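User: Could you write out the 3D structure of this protein bound to iron/sulfur cluster? I've included everything you need below.
Assistant: Certainly. Input first, then the structure.
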Amino acid sequence: MSRKKALSIKDHPEQWVEERIKCFIAESESNRLALDGEVIYDEPLVGFARGDDPLFRRYKKVIGKFHYTPLEWVKLTLDEKAPPNLRARDLRVIAWVLPITKRTRKENRMQGKVTSRRWAHTRLYGEECNQGLRSYVVSILTEKGYVAVAPFQSSFFATLKDNRVGYASNWSERHVLYAAGLGTFGLSDGLITPKGKAMRCGSVITNLPVKPTQRLYQARGAYCLFFQEGTCTECARRCPVGAITEEGHDKNACRSFVHERMGRYIRQTFDIEIHACGLCQTGVPCEFEIPG
Ligand code: B12
Ligand code: SF4
Ligand code: SF4
């Protein structure tokens, strides 16, 4: 990536990482839709959390014991290659938001019952780009001699159905972003960031000593109009299967629509193999900004 040279990793670790993530998204061919060659994501947002942030222990209660801490991820994934005596406080989590472009958001916004072609392509090829970014961040940090693990790419990563919280994973990237100061949860469960909710996200754990990003919120629903004022509920109106109500998000109804009905529809209509929906992420006040 060409804008690389200016900053030194030792003197400016935060800017060094942020610059590289932004360059990857600006320059990588993987950030282009095969449909028409247009970009998939706009400029990313980047944030950092401490490995010993008390939130990671709290997630063991909020999500479940199966949700690993950053230290557990490094030890499990690197095994004997993990530096001896590595402590939670030596670790940081790098997290990013990949905002979905205006054109793709607009196309999904026009839809009422089914997802749009560009949204489905973004789900498929945009996640490939996100995976490429996770690998890229791991490789540039490893090359510089730092520990780097992308839990989503670890053989220990798993999704599951828990008795209490329902569909979940052992590394929830939304919760990681919340810890890294990048956004708060909405009524729909979607994470609302300063670039809105129509986004995908990713994360890498490292021992590069970046300064944690300040969280400009106290409550997990701070950016959602429903949690703040009892108004809005536009995401509930947008959901074609009534999976969002004032009680929250029905993951079973959502998952069966997204994975089964939309999976079939996308295969038959767009000829690609992926499940997607995202109607509750577009045509809502939190689509591309913090509402209010
Ligand atoms: C499993 C999964 C699903 C499941 C369950 C979703 C869910 N709510 O967890 C299903 C199949 C339903 C699903 C659907 C979709 N998904 Co999905 N999914 C995941 C996956 C693989 C794991 C999510 C996870 O671990 N959840 C853990 C559970 C426990 O989270 P939760 O129930 O939402 O958490 C609540 C509680 O923790 C609660 N809470 C209670 N007390 C406290 C206290 C504190 C301090 C905090 C912080 C929170 C908290 O707040 C949370 C919100 O209500 C992630 C990828 C990843 N590894 O993170 C993508 C991910 C969440 N999905 C994503 C997307 C885009 C989608 C879809 C739009 C499909 C699409 N691509 O078109 C829909 C949207 C559904 C919705 N309304 O949000 C994005 C999220 C983007 C965003 N803006 O939020 C992710 C992060 C993928 C990515 N890498 O970008 N998904
Ligand atoms: S659409 Fe409204 S109620 Fe739903 S998450 Fe966004 S701000 Fe909250
Ligand atoms: S992703 Fe689709 S089905 Fe799931 S809650 Fe959002 S609008 Fe409803």
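The chain has one domain: 2-281.
User: Perfect, thank you.
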